[in-house]
Amino acid sequence: MAVDIRCVVSCSLGTPISGSVNDEYVQGTGLIKCTGSVVINAVITPAIGTAVTISYIKGGVTRQIPRKLRVLSSFADPFRGTTSVELGCKLTYLQDLRDQIDWTAFDDPSNTLTTSDAEIITIPITAQSVADKCLVELGITPNGLALSNQFSIAKFDLGAGYVSVLSDLLVSENFCGYLDQNEVLRV
């Protein structure tokens, strides 16, 4: 995203000296992640995960970059009086969040079948229930996400990480998603 340099840019961490923010889409993935960096004219130590907003004023109108970013890392340089901060959206921030759990058809709250039924047929695991589990664990709200795939497997492995599994589920149905400035998943 390009911002006209003839505007006044501000950052919630302090006065920015320089910076850049961009959406990163990798072909064959279902999620667009946002990353960037900013150099602040101050020596600060922002906590990892702190929400950061970047806005700009042009023609008397204040606008916000349409992504909520979070601090991924920072480096304070006391000799120059600056702090370099690496930024990313919540998907980037939580990309390594994972639990070694297997999701089964019985973990799906909408499933009405019993273990007796499983002895006769393979109870499918819906892509929507797996996506909902990932979104809950990531603390992300979807906007109209409706996946239709079903998997005829006994367990769905979530060990790859919630962001990775969610990305794979989206791409398997030819969807692409990103987080808006309110951290709502837009598909």
Q: Would you kindly provide a written description of the structure presented here, covering whatever features stand out?
A:
This protein is an alpha+beta fold. Helices cover 18% and strands 36% of the residues. The protein has 4 helices and 15 strands. The chain has helices at 90-93, 115-120, 127-138, 162-172, and strands at residues 8-11, 16-24, 31-40, 51-52, 54-58, 61-64, 69-77, 82-88, 102-103, 125-126, 141-143, 150-151, 156-157, 177-179, 184-186. Strands 2, 3, 4, 7, 8, 11, 14 and 15 form an 8-stranded mixed β-sheet that branches. The chain has a 3-stranded antiparallel β-sheet with strand order 1-5-6, with no helix packed on it. Strands 9-13 form a two-stranded antiparallel ribbon. Strand 7 (69-77) and strand 8 (82-88) form a beta hairpin. The longest helix is centred in the last third of the chain and has 12 residues, at 127-138. It is elongated and about 70 Å long.
Task: Pick out its properties.
single chain, 187 residues, alpha+beta, 8-stranded mixed beta sheet, 3-stranded antiparallel beta sheet, 36% strand, elongated
Topology:
Elements: E1 8-11, E2 16-24, E3 31-40, E4 51-52, E5 54-58, E6 61-64, E7 69-77, E8 82-88, H1 90-93, E9 102-103, H2 115-120, E10 125-126, H3 127-138, E11 141-143, E12 150-151, E13 156-157, H4 162-172, E14 177-179, E15 184-186
Parallel strand pairs: 3-14, 11-15
Antiparallel strand pairs: 1-5, 2-3, 3-8, 4-7, 5-6, 7-8, 9-13, 10-12, 14-15
Helix pairs in contact: 3-4
